[in-house]
Amino acid sequence: xxxxxxxxxxxxxxxxxxxxxxxxxxxxxxxxxxxxxxxxxxxxxxxxxxxxxxxxxxxxxxxxxxxxxxxxxxxxxxxxxxxxxxxxxxxxxxxxxxxxxxxxxxxxxxxxxxxxxxxxxxxxxxxxxxxxxxxxxxxxxxxxxxxxxxxxxxxxxxxxxxxxxxxxxxxxxxxxxxxxxxxxxxxxxxxxxxxxxxxxxxxxxxxxxxxxxxxxxxxxxxxxxxxxxxxxxxxxxxxxxxxxxxxxxxxxxxxxxxxxxxxxxxx
Length: 267
Known about the structure:
It is a single chain. By secondary structure, the chain is of the alpha/beta class. It has one domain (3-264): TIM Barrel (Alpha-Beta Barrel). The protein has helices at 3-13, 30-43, 62-73, 78-89, 101-107, 109-118, 135-143, 158-167, 191-199, 215-222, 232-240, 244-264; strands at 18-24, 47-51, 95-98, 123-125, 147-149, 151-152, 172-175, 206-209, 227-230. The radius of gyration is 17 Å and the shape is globular. Keywords: Amino-acid biosynthesis, Aromatic amino acid biosynthesis, Lyase, Tryptophan biosynthesis. Tetramer of two alpha and two beta chains. GO terms for molecular function: tryptophan synthase activity.
């Protein structure tokens, strides 16, 4: 069992959902993003996603785009991203890279898998890579002991869900809404149905992301999902902070709120 699977199993044994937090590497700086991820973990985040900044962020909403662009403007590289992974993974929390496929392919599929494993990374989430085109990545991930997370969406047919879950290791990422990332006033009502449909095809944990921004929403999702994924809300806390120190306080406080909420979600 991988470290990621162990953490998800431990959360299930506690009758709660796992809390998964996302931040792009390099914002507000490379060292600043490591510090922010560690603050999130100290606040109660179980698993972290490190975003690999990319110039064509198809799924990213305006908040994440702003942070990603700042990191790109500062000259962040894939090697910097791996340094952020190493800094977060050193805490013991499973650390995934969230990336579009193009930068990994350009870096070199096996080279990236080897470097990610060497940095202590747990695996990847690849939102724009479909199972039919993932043979090279699946082989590289398996060769280096990495988990591989793919996405299902509200529009996914049963056949598509079955195909996707078959190649998932670690968890299945259920996108709770169509469109780009970002905070929402309410969680999509169809998220629960998507989780139920996905569980018809797999025993791999199903974690829900896109749109969760506060404790109330996190508790709502935790009541039916194996994990609650929060991204834009953490990034917003950093963007709105007057300085890096204040940003760390803000993301830690949000993590504490969300961690308490996922424990209430099953009660």
